[in-house]
């Protein structure tokens, strides 16, 4: 399929985040600790994927719950400035996190606000939009859970790609996402054997599983038995937030251009560098609404 003709509909979180850089993650005891720097910026796994898909020339629309609060206006302005098409659905509040991070890529995410529940009408509108696309990316979220449950119950729609993140092979919430998906992504944070984890995913229905390994690159396993690996592209890391989402987007864009499995992995590794080289999810975010502080 020519990349220019492909349409991707993406459903999931977009948030306004406070990133706090520390020399180490806090110990679970009362103490005082000085931050090395902080930054308010766009966050959310779906926002990250949308930014990088748009960067690769994919016709992508992000379907997200956003409030009319200041955080929602920040999110909308940042995505608009980056050229991302957004279909916003009403929420009482916009998702917001405080991320405690280290230069080594360690992170603790504190959820300060989560979206209110979407109505059946709004979920129906999102489901219809995803069904009309060539690829439906359904990220982990309350709305996403409803959509994949309906798919498992027999609803028709475009092939689902989903990102299981730090899936351990057993988490109950992830199960319907996995079983409804055509392609699944994950990282190796919760496994010592990523090949076995990917095979266990394929045993539940997907045709392809991809696992990112951080600085060691990424691997992929197809239901046919085909295996592929890629090394990480060398980069001076500025920030690790969104690297997995960038990899996902690069891989998906290459797949839409009919690249083989090795080519898709290589494209994902190259796109991850774009995120790793920026203090934002994507350098285009800098052109959005003024950020209130910057990492020093």
Overview of this structure, please?
The chain is built from eight helices and 13 strands. The protein is an alpha/beta fold and 296 residues long. The chain has a single domain (3-277), classed as Ribokinase (UDP-N-acetylmuramoyl-L-alanine:D-glutamate ligase). The strands form two sheets. Strands 5-4-1-8-9-10-11-12-13 form a nine-stranded mixed beta sheet, with helices on both faces. Strands 3-2-6-7 form a four-stranded mixed beta sheet. Strand 6 (95-102) and strand 7 (107-113) form a beta hairpin. It comes from Microbacterium trichothecenolyticum (Aureobacterium trichothecenolyticum).
What is this structure, in a nutshell?
The protein has 296 residues and is of the alpha/beta class. 31% of the residues lie in helices and 26% in strands. The radius of gyration is 18 Å and the shape is globular.
Strand content: 25-35%
Instruction: Please tell me the overall pLDDT.
Output: 94
What are the secondary-structure elements, in order, as H or E?
A: EEEHEHEEEHEHEHEHEEEHH
Please identify, by name, the CATH architecture. 3-Layer(aba) Sandwich
- How many domains make up the coordinates? 1
Work out the oligomeric state of the chains in this entry: single chain
C-alpha Rg, in Å? 18 Å
Instruction: Please identify the structural class as seen in this structure.
Output: alpha/beta
CATH superfamily: Ribokinase
| Main sheet: strand order | 5-4-1-8-9-10-11-12-13
**In angstroms, what separates the terminal alpha carbons?**
44 Å
CATH topology: UDP-N-acetylmuramoyl-L-alanine:D-glutamate ligase
**Which class in CATH terms?**
Alpha Beta
Shape: globular
Estimate the helix proportion, in percent.
25-40%
> Major β-sheet, in short?
9 strands, mixed
- Spans with pLDDT under 50 lasting ≥5 residues? 288-296
Keywords: Kinase, Transferase
Family: Belongs to the carbohydrate kinase PfkB family.
Organism: Microbacterium trichothecenolyticum
EC number: 2.7.1.92
């Amino acid at each position: 399929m020519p990349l220019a003709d492909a349409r991707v509909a993406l459903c999931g979180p977009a948030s306004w985040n406070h990133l706090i850089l520390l020399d180490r993650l806090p110990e679970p005891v009362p103490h005082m600790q000085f931050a090395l720097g902080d930054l308010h910026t766009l966050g959310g796994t779906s926002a990250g994927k949308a930014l990088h898909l748009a960067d690769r020339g994919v016709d992508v629309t992000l379907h997200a719950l956003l409030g009319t609060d200041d955080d929602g206006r920040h999110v909308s302005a940042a995505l608009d400035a980056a050229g991302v098409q957004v279909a916003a659905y009403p929420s009482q509040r916009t998702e917001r996190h405080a991320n405690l991070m280290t230069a080594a890529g360690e992170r603790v995410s504190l959820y300060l606000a989560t979206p209110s529940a979407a109505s059946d009408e709004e979920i129906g509108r999102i489901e219809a939009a995803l069904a009309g696309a060539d690829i439906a990316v359904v990220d982990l979220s309350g709305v996403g859970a409803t959509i994949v449950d309906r798919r498992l119950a027999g609803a028709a729609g475009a092939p689902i790609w989903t990102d299981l993140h730090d899936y351990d092979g057993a988490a109950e919430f992830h199960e319907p996402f996995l079983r409804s998906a055509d392609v699944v992504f994950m990282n190796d944070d919760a496994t010592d054997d990523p090949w076995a984890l990917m095979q266990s995913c394929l045993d539940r229905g997907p045709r392809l599983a991809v696992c990112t390994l951080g600085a060691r690159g990424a691997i992929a396993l197809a239901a046919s038995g085909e295996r592929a690996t890629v090394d990480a592209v060398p980069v001076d890391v500025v920030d690790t937030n969104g690297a997995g989402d960038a990899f996902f987007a690069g891989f998906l864009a290459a797949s839409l251009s009919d690249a083989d499995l090795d080519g898709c992995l290589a494209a994902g590794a190259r796109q991850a560098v774009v995120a790793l080289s920026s203090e934002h999810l994507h350098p285009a975010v800098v052109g959005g609404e003024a950020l209130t502080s910057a990492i020093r």
